[in-house]
């Protein structure tokens, strides 16, 4: 079976495994206060052009999301996000569990707009009953989104402007950041992300690491005693050096960017194969996740050889199927898939 | 100035004030464990046809809502409600503050349907990733809704059935219950409410009392140590007998029902006056809240003599204006308003 | 039966009831934004010598406690209080329910010291693992304490100094404030309280009102959007004017102070009667709560005529019995009790 | 420098690293639903003699503690633990952050007794004001404790009995379980732990793994939708197979037990060296953590060659110093330390 079901089914990139293996036998300080974490943070700050940023390493995405939100919002504030936002639909209410409200906004292909943010901000500003409603305090977006789409630089700049206008924090979930930056047609750099967000993270789990998310904080208020928030929210790894050593490897010689770029190139090959066959996309994604519409028969045919994800059905009874590449996807796997697409019966 | 802005601007019905005055000088047990609360509970249980119900008295609506939700749901469960639901938009995130998620559903005139509930329940049931999403654990509706509309008996029966099918608790917010039961065309009785809901409350604050909401619990699981939940959520009044004495008065000789019925009759007179004048409703409400569309000039004209609420604007730049009657609205006030409507310039 | 079991078993002082009765028929704005609340706040600010204070009216004590704490502390901060503190032992974990930790300190007769606060502050300051422990962010004390004792001015000044030194907020629970200020030997004025606390409240429920606690905020940070916190925590009464009208009455002609002073005088008469009889106090209380040690036989004898509270036993098998006066305790009741004490068999 | 400062400063036991390395290139299902986790769970269930247990793998201790507590307690319930309990003093208020109260009990060398539990249970049972206080719902102990001591089998049996008598859940934090089971004089087996606890965990982070804690649930109520609690509390690792593969290695050929036993033997050698030198223990610990009392000069002398932890001072101005062995401590390190002890000036 060839696996295209997700981007977290393999251990880690060989360079990451080698880096962990190389420090075996050495002893390091606990809880992320070690020299390797320091070096990894320096590499990241240099690469993103933000020497004054705070960088912290956490284990996973859900944990990172609610920790950042807990550190950023006051009790009466809420976070605006797309209805399809990960925090709204796939984290078992973790944000609400620690006391904060999510206000879900309608989305287009996983994206929300500056106009929506401004409208929410303005509604609060002009409200006669401000104490009866939550104050929008944060905008949460993902780059790329849960549908694999990316914001344009213009869209991000506009979101930033709306956040400034209404006093909101901009938080960018970068669980798949590498794949987003490598997206076909993308005009956003990691330096733009670091310039525009108050806080964001560079996803490791899905981009070459065993696990780990590097949180970058640009807004000093959020950074205040952030380590206390990490600990309180269960995100402080005793052996923090395991996170540092992985990110040090990923940010050496731009490995993080190279391997995610390769994964996106493979996804584009697959996308083209589907398109050439006349199989429609559910959403036009320029990143490593491809959502296509298959008939029942086609899906069953693929299922004999490939593992992929079923994401529900459309009204016309087509299956929405996700095929996902990652840093570890091989040329052979792609060839097998494109070949299968070509010989598919309509 | 004549006040039609809300139904909580007066102290209390004279019979309620008299009842409080009559017990002055008497000493009672604290925290609702007194004989008057007991008598009030008995009167309520008899009137709603539920001798085995648990009745508790809380002070206000927001408090009651999140206390009931806290007592009903496990951490990974969420409450389904209309996007316009009071808990979703007018309680400053109180439900999330104590850790529970609200899943807001699109509504029609403030109402949600059994089909929507079944869809949410089914989506969870068939999900491959149940641990990543919240489990719908409760349906919250208001009777009447925030738009003054009411559910039909058939709609409530269908909601009950959907709740049974998918294991959800049905919670009915009756902050304005009296006005809903007295609605024009309503076919639901308080006995129906008591039969169909797992838990509901009989609003006192807006229906003749100084303050107070009588929670009626039919589902024994929710009732378990409910007093602990009340105390923990700040809803236990030291002088609980003040709540008991008010509800005893309101449930003596059906006072609660009589005075809300009169208020709705007055609202219907006002509704007819608007309609006769050709002024459109924003929503066709059969209860004490009337939402009409006024031009800027009309609204200003009314504002000289009447206090009413501005609820925003429509796309066509009409003002959505709320005129509200209550148990204390006088014939004179209604006459002044209907007269003003009649002489209004178009 | 004569009731000495608590100070919340009667409705309200006649002047308060009259004040409520007098506004019947008038309509007021909702949620505390009415002119009466404004007047009451002005009277309070004048009386406490703090023209720039923020005054808010809430319904009950538990609610007030956790609302103030929610508004004051960040997630990783904790509140220091006596092990016997009301928030620690009699509020069903309400503070923890909204996410904050209480660090309980050993007490002497219900009181904690500046030295204990300084020690906790210093322990955090010098800690190598600050992110693993909560930061003391608030000191909570009650005046009078749960044992009826009061802090001296010197003790309060010292607590203030320790709070300043270590950056803590000082919160004084004044559920029985009137009785504390009237305590035998007390050298603290309400102006001192207002000068030394960051936030405190003037208890109404136990001091002449039907219900209600007047929160006075001196620290602007706590005051920021405090109404949002009130609403979120279920403490915003729709008919807020009911709170205003009661406190306006209580702060007219110093009624609040006069009636609590009378209650304490009566308690001192009772205290003397017990002492003259040779019955020992469990704690030497100068306020309206008297804790005495009775034999089983004595307690049973009293129980025939009087209602009082059983607060447990001592090691020597004596019953700790609480006799409580209030603003409504009559001369006749006191005479009956002192007479019974005198004729008690040893 | 030789490191004796903690038991989490090295990566992982070679067998664990090898196991991870061996699965590189293989793809596995996500979120712990893979065959390796299944195999690891089977090995654990067999070893502990509990074929019907539920086994889940989480990343770290704090996270595990509050996840288990969130899954076990209702909002009005509290957890009893020693004042020195990890959840009470070293987790930044994580338990309170998700809404539950900790009631801290005085301890002896880190341990609490069945009598204390029974007292707390009895106090609640006989209380007249149950709704004003939290109900003890859980006992949390650590094995070994934060001071390195262990409960005897008799003590554990008594705690179990008290929990049964008063309806409490017994939760055993086994972050260092291996070291506890290998303690000098210990008479408790892992089968006893599994028989007596409702829920416990087998710590991996400090006992040979890179990270990871294996939660074993014996009480089906706690196990209900436990995966939802894991996800909600940020403890679900995307690549769960990384946890499974480590515990499979640790529970193959009793590796977990062998390596922790060796670590304790080394600690006993160090303990003896201190004792032979006449240096006193702060606490008589039979496990891998040794707490000794050093003079300032002695501590400085050691600090030249060894890293160890300063845990404060005693009243006599002696330093409490912790020397910790682990699975990775070498004979050479032990020899260097015992030699240094021998030549120490008094």
Folded structure, characterized:
Chain A is an alpha/beta fold and 346 residues long. The first copy, chain A, folds into two domains: 93 residues, Aspartate Aminotransferase, domain 1, CATH 3.90.1150; 240 residues, Aspartate Aminotransferase, domain 2. In chain A, 42% of the residues lie in helices and 18% in strands. Chain A is globular, with a radius of gyration of 21 Å. The mean pLDDT of chain A is 96. Chains A and D meet through helix 1, helix 3 and helix 11 of A and helix 1, helix 3 and helix 11 of D.
Q: In CATH terms, what is the architecture of the largest domain in chain A? A: 3-Layer(aba) Sandwich
Low-confidence runs of at least 5 consecutive residues of chain A: none
SS-derived structural category of chain A: alpha/beta
Mean pLDDT level of chain A: 96
- How many separate structural domains of chain A? 2
Proportion in β-strands of chain A: 15-25%
Enter the CATH topology name of the largest domain in chain A: Aspartate Aminotransferase, domain 2
Quickly count the helices of chain A. 15
Largest protein interface? A-D, 49 and 49 residues
Q: Brief overview, please?
A:
Chain A has 346 residues and is α/β, with parallel strands linked by helices. Chain A has helices at residues 14-22, 35-47, 61-72, 86-89, 94-97, 114-125, 153-166, 177-181, 190-196, 220-223, 226-232, 241-250, 255-277, 296-303, 331-342; strands at residues 2-3, 54-58, 77-82, 101-105, 135-142, 169-173, 199-203, 213-217, 281-283, 289-294, 306-307, 309-313, 319-324.
